[in-house]
Amino acid sequence: MTSLKLTLPNRVAREAKEAGLLKSQVIERLLRAEIKRRRVKRLFSAADRLAALDLPPLTEAEVQPEIQAVRRENVSQRA
User: Does the reported pTM lie above 0.85?
Assistant: First the structure.
């Protein structure tokens, strides 16, 4: 476990405390939600950058070996 010390403006600290937001469980939930939100944002940003490349779509013959490689990797990770 890691301990944190926060320095907040008095008004924010008071309002957060009154709202029950300064409890460890609540802060953990808020942080996890923000981490997830940022991951999703990065994923969509990467998708936007890929879309901007304007590459031709892959053929089924090009996609199939990629699918097989991922399946092999998943099987080896489970073993």
Answer: no
How many whole angstroms separate alpha carbon 63 and alpha carbon 69?
10
Residue-wise pLDDT tens digits, 9-28: 999 999 999 999 999 999 99
Measured distance CA(8)–CA(58) in Å, rounded:
52
Measured torsion, CA atoms of residues 13, 18, 21, 26, in degrees rounded to the nearest 10: 150
User: What six digits make up the tokens of 67?
Assistant: 């699918």
CA distance to 5, 29, 65, 66, per residue, from 59 (Å): 54, 43, 11, 11
What are the tokens at 8?
A: 């907040």
